[in-house]
C-alpha cells in the first residue's frame, strides 16, 4: 500500500518537531524520539534470558545444551500450592554482563498482570535491578500486564526509567476478528497511563542502544519473501487523547481508517555476544523473522547470527509457506533457533525437520544462557 511508506529523513525530522510541539502542549507527555544517527552496538560477555511468561509450561522440561547455548527449567516453588502460570503472551527478563558490569532489561509484559506478577515473585526476580523497559509492539499480549506491573513496582524502578517502544503506531487502537463488521476491541496501549506512572517513552523508529548493552533494530525493512500473516486490524487517529498521532507518519486520508495491521512500529531487541555473534529476539515477528535478523545484521555490522529467539508468528502459516521461510532461516546459519509464543507447533516441527538439533524449545520459567 502506498500509504505505508518508510519514513524519510526530512519527514522524520518534521515529525520529530511535531511530536515535540505536541509534548510541550501536554497532548503526548513523556514521549521522545530516538536519535537518527548510526549506532555502535556494544558487545556483551554474557547474556541470560529468563522466560517470565510464555504460552506454554512443561513440568517435565529437560535441560539442553547446543552450540554453546544452555537452557534449563526453573526450580520448583518451595510451596507446592503455587506454580508458574502461562497464558497467551510473552515476557522476557534479559540480564547481560560486560567486564563485570551488569544490566537488566525487561522485554514485554504478558497479557495480564496477575500472571506476570505471580511469575516474577516465584522466579525471584527483582524489579529494582531493572535498567530499562522495552515493548516490542502494540499487541495486548505483549503490553497487557504493564500497568499492573508499574502499579506494584514503579517505586522500586529508577526515577528516570525509560520505556523503549517502536513507532508511533504502538499507540493505535487495535481490533481483532475475521474482517470488517465482525471486529471486537483488542486494546490500546495508553500513553496517558504511562505518563501518570512517570514513565518516559522513547520511540525507536531508528536503531537505538538500550542501557549500554542491548540495541533495537528500528523500523524493520521488508525485503525477504516473508509477508504479514493475518492478525489484527488497526484504527488510525486520536480520540480523547487515546490512540496514535497520524500526522507523525501517515497521510491525512488515513485518519479514522480501520485497515489490516502492517505493524510499522514493530522492532526487535538484540545483543552482540562477544566472539559468538548476534542474539536477535523477535517477540512476534509480524514483520518477518528473516527480515528482523537481516535488519539486525545491517544496523550492527555483525553478520554472524548466534541465536534467533522469540515469537515468529508462524502458527497460522500454510505448510508450503512455512517450508520456504524455515529454509530462509537456515540460510542465516544461526547456531540455535529458539521459538516461543506464537511460533506454532507446526513451525517447531518444520524447523526440526530442516535444522535438527539447532532447534531448542523452551517453557515458562526457563533460563537460556549465552556466552562464557
Give me a quick take on this structure:
Pfam families: Lactamase_B (PF00753). By secondary structure, the chain is an alpha/beta fold.
Layout of strands and helices, then pairs:
Blueprint: H1 9-25, E1 31-33, E2 43-44, E3 46-53, E4 64-66, E5 69-72, E6 91-98, E7 101-107, H2 113-122, E8 132-134, H3 140-143, H4 146-153, E9 162-165, E10 173-176, E11 184-185, H5 191-196, E12 200-203, E13 208-210, E14 214-216, E15 232-235, E16 237-239, E17 242-244, E18 258-260, E19 269-273, E20 277-282, H6 289-300, E21 305-311, H7 319-331, E22 336-340, H8 345-355, E23 367-371
Parallel strand pairs: 1-12, 2-19, 7-8, 8-9, 9-12, 20-21, 21-22
Antiparallel strand pairs: 3-6, 3-23, 4-5, 5-23, 6-7, 10-11, 10-15, 13-14, 14-19, 15-18, 16-17, 19-20
Helix pairs in contact: 2-4, 7-8
The count of strands amounts to 23
Q: What is the count of structural domains?
A: 1
Give the helix tally. Answer: 8
Mean pLDDT: 88
Quickly name the level 1 CATH class: Alpha Beta
**Adjacency order of strands in the biggest sheet:** 1-12-9-8-7-6-3-23-5-4
Major sheet attributes? 10 strands, mixed
CATH homologous superfamily heading: Ribonuclease Z/Hydroxyacylglutathione hydrolase-like
Radius of gyration: 19 Å
Judging from the principal axes of the Cα atoms, what is the shape? Answer: globular
Structural class label: alpha/beta
Strand content: 25-35%
CATH architectural designation: 4-Layer Sandwich
Domain Metallo-beta-lactamase: 120-164
GO molecular function: hydrolase activity; transferase activity
Signal peptide: 1-36
Protein name: MBL fold metallo-hydrolase
Amino acid at each position: 500500500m502506498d500509504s505505508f511508506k518508510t519514513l524519510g529523513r526530512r519527514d522524520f525530522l518534521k515529525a520529530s518537531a511535531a511530536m515535540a510541539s505536541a509534548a510541550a502542549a501536554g497532548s503526548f507527555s513523556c514521549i521522545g524520539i530516538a536519535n537518527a544517527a548510526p549506532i555502535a552496538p556494544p558487545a556483551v560477555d554474557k547474556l541470560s534470558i529468563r522466560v517470565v511468561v510464555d504460552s506454554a509450561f512443561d513440568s517435565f522440561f529437560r535441560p539442553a545444551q547446543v552450540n554453546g547455548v544452555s537452557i534449563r527449567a526453573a526450580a520448583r516453588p518451595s510451596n507446592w500450592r503455587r506454580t508458574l502460570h502461562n497464558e497467551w503472551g510473552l515476557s522476557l527478563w534479559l540480564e547481560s554482563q560486560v567486564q563485570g558490569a551488569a544490566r537488566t532489561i525487561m522485554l514485554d509484559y504478558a497479557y495480564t498482570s496477575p500472571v506476570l506478577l505471580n511469575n516474577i515473585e516465584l522466579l525471584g526476580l527483582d524489579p529494582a535491578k531493572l535498567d530499562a523497559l522495552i515493548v516490542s509492539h502494540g499487541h495486548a499480549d505483549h503490553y497487557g500486564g504493564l500497568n499492573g506491573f508499574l502499579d506494584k513496582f514503579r517505586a522500586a524502578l529508577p526515577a528516570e526509567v525509560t520505556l523503549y517502544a517502536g513507532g508511533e503506531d504502538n499507540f493505535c487502537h487495535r481490533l481483532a476478528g475475521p474482517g470488517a463488521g465482525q471486529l471486537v476491541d483488542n486494546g490500546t496501549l495508553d500513553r496517558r497511563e504511562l505518563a501518570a506512572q512517570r514513565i518516559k517513552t522513547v520511540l525507536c523508529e531508528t536503531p537505538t542502544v538500550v542501557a549500554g548493552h542491548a540495541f533495537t533494530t528500528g523500523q524493520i525493512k521488508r525485503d525477504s519473501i516473508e509477508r504479514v500473516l493475518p492478525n489484527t486490524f488497526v484504527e488510525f487517529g486520536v480520540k480523547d487523547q487515546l490512540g496514535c498521532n497520524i500526522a507523525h507518519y501517515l497521510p491525512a486520508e488515513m485518519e479514522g481508517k480501520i485497515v489490516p495491521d502492517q505493524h510499522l512500529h514493530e522492532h526487535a531487541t538484540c545483543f552482540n555476544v562477544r566472539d559468538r555473534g548476534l542474539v536477535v529476539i523477535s517477540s512476534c515477528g509480524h514483520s518477518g523473522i528473516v527480515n528482523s535478523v537481516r535488519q539486525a545484521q545491517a544496523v550492527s555490522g555483525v553478520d554472524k547470527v548466534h541465536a534467533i529467539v522469540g515469537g515468529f508468528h508462524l502458527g497460522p502459516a500454510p505448510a508450503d509457506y512455512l517450508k520456504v521461510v524455515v529454509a530462509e532461516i537456515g540460510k542465516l546459519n544461526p547456531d540455535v533457533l529458539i521459538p516461543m509464543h506464537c511460533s506454532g507447533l507446526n513451525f517447531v516441527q518444520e524447523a526440526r525437520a530442516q535444522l535438527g538439533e539447532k532447534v531448542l524449545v523452551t517453557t515458562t520459567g526457563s533460563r537460556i544462557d549465552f556466552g562464557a
